[in-house]
Amino acid sequence: MAKYVLKTNRLSKSYKDTKSLSDVSVALEAGKIYGLVGRNGAGKSTFMKLVAGLSFPTSGSLELFGHSNKQALQAERKRVGCMIEYPSLDLNLSASENMRMHRILRGVPNKEVEQELLTLVGLNDTKKKKAKNFSLGMKQRLGIAIALLNSPEFLILDEPINGLDPLGVIDIRNLLKKLCEEKQITILISSHNLPELYHVATDYIFIHHGEIKQTLSRKELDERCSQHLSITCDQPEKLTSVLEMELQTTNYKVMPDNTVKVFDYLSEKEKVAQTLFKHGLAVTNFSVEGDTLEDYFISVVGGAENE
Ligand SMILES: Nc1ncnc2c1ncn2[C@@H]1O[C@H](COP(=O)(O)OP(=O)(O)OP(=O)(O)O)[C@@H](O)[C@H]1O
């Protein structure tokens, strides 16, 4: 049975005239990396703050590690690490001094954890350099090290790759994969950039105007974004048997509306069309489809920024 780190039930948050989050119901399974993707102002930080206990819902409820009552939730939040909106660094302190300050503030007795985590995030040789002289990527990595101080099982990171150069993005991506694979930490990471999240997340949650528009796995996203022939005809079952028997491919998928997606023969479309015709199939749609990640994002959350 799936083990859930987080479940929300119609979680909502309003600020005076603004409904920042509307009826958000999601379930996050342990051991995965969830990408929370949405435009600026979609409600990503609002959602993360509610989960982290930094803000309170207007309505709805949430469950962490299977617990939902107020006191139990507070206790379970000790198993959560977060970096929301910006890393909470003292810019006049070095990496080690920042780690020490946060370790003491959180009551973590083990001093060794400071260096262990700085090594993990690749900041063990920054010596006395003050955080104000760090690159954005180094600040983000230090923020992640701070979020890891209490050995969390669930890590919440708000836009940790926003504004980083390509190498900085790769560093953070590799770090997150390592945390998930080696330390079995479940991760929720937000971004407004689906291609950036694509390489790190195992699952994606699309949020727009405070509502969850779609949740899907990497495999499902790949299927939707890979180029394929989309075929609609009067006899879908006969179509699949022609694909298997005549065209020798099982690389297809029948969609709920009976459209068949064929992932082979993209460069031999005529051969497919002729074969279907030869077998008397009445084809009503035959087209090449498949979005880029950017197109797919827009198809889910809409095109215009201020619609
Ligand atoms: N404290 C607040 N008071 C009033 N409105 C707020 C507050 N916090 C957030 N909002 C509003 O709630 C909506 C969602 O904001 P939120 O910061 O959660 O979005 P986001 O997806 O994290 O965006 P960004 O990527 O720009 O940080 C926005 O319309 C924002 O203006």
Automatic annotation (TrEMBL):
Instruction: Give residue ranges for domain ABC transporter.
Output: 6-234
Q: Where is the signal peptide?
A: none
Q: Which SUPFAM superfamilies match?
A: P-loop containing nucleoside triphosphate hydrolases (SSF52540)
Q: Which InterPro entries match?
A: AAA+_ATPase, ABC_transporter-like_ATP-bd, ABC_transporter-like_CS, P-loop_NTPase
**Key word Transport present:** yes
**Keywords for the protein's UniProt record, in alphabetical order:** ATP-binding, Nucleotide-binding, Transport
Q: Which domain of life is it from?
A: Bacteria
GO terms for molecular function, please? ATP binding
UniProt keyword Transcription regulation present: no
Q: Which protein family is named in the record? A: Belongs to the ABC transporter superfamily.
PANTHER family per the record? ABC TRANSPORTER, ATP-BINDING PROTEIN
Spell out the protein name for this chain: ABC-2 type transport system ATP-binding protein
Its source organism is Caldalkalibacillus horti
